[in-house]
Specification:
Blueprint (H helix, E strand, L loop, with lengths): L8 E5 L11 H6 L16 H17 L10 H5 L1 E7 L2 E9 L3 H4 L4 H9 L2 E4 L5 E3 L17 E8 L8 H14 L22 E7 L3 H6 L3 E2 L5 E4 L2 E11 L10 E2 L4
């Protein structure tokens, strides 16, 4: 197991904006092969975001064989990102996706029902449908209306697993979230000024193979969301609630156990 005389350092990156969506495929491809010199990124892309990709692409694309095209999405531009560094080299990352507009605008259950009907993917080897998204209606653990944020793109390089770095990223990011609800409540869309402020609910789209690990991080599986497949990997929805009642900036929030 690698050792270091320097402590792991964590950087928090505010939403990097739409510039990250213009990163050329040639740059992303260069990150799958160590030793290649990547092309110059667009000037408005923050360097810490590229550091996050230097972890995500080796883990998700090279190791787990997810598609390169699917690694960047619109949520990256508006998410808060955390990156862990060991000797100035990125080794782990995650993102917090702010409240999504469709979750709270109108609070209409029929919108979720309509979305649910579109979530049927290809059948598996036994002929059963593989859903490409979770169910979107209310469950025993979510009323279908309360705003929530999503924690995701959690990745740690193989060389640094088993050292508690991912757990530290989760705890530090959620402690920050607990005191910065206003920063996580605006989807940045015109005409959505009346969206309720986030009050502490966090969702993880967890890979089923590491469901137990997420459970140790305080997340609880929501059976009502079902299981679905992303990039050929089975996922489940898991919730955790943080105590976001104290919103004084700079004061560490208290983390609570699951719902």
């Amino acid at each position: 197991m690698p050792t270091s005389s320097n402590p792991i350092k964590i950087t928090r990156l505010p939403p990097p904006g739409p510039a990250v969506l213009s990163i050329p495929t040639s740059l992303l491809s260069s990150l799958t092969e160590p030793g290649l010199t990547p092309p110059t990124p667009p000037k408005d892309v923050p360097p810490p975001y590229l550091s996050a990709l230097r972890v995500r692409i080796p883990v998700f694309v090279t190791e787990q064989r997810c598609s390169l095209a699917g690694e960047l999405d619109a949520d990256d531009a508006r998410s808060w990102h955390w990156i862990a560094f060991d000797n100035d080299q990125p080794v782990a990352t995650l993102r917090l996706v702010p409240v999504t507009a469709e979750v709270v605008v109108g609070g209409a259950e029929q919108e979720f029902v309509a979305m649910e009907k579109e979530c049927v993917g290809l059948p598996d080897k036994d002929g059963r449908d593989k859903r490409s998204e979770p169910y979107h209606g209310a469950t025993a653990m979510w009323d279908g209306r309360e705003p929530f944020i999503k924690i995701g793109r959690m990745a740690t390089l193989a060389s640094h697993r088993g050292r508690g770095i991912a757990q530290r990223l989760i705890e530090e990011s959620l402690a920050w979230a607990a005191t910065h609800g206003a920063d996580l409540s605006s989807p940045g869309s015109e005409g959505l000024e009346n969206i309720p402020q986030w009050s502490g609910l966090v969702l993880s789209h967890a890979q089923k193979s590491v469901q137990e690990w997420w459970g140790k991080m305080g997340f609880e599986v929501d059976e009502g969301l079902g299981a679905w497949w992303e990039e050929g990997i089975e996922h489940v929805g898991m919730w955790r609630r943080v105590d976001a009642t104290d919103r004084a900036r700079g004061e560490r929030g208290r983390i609570t156990r699951p719902l």
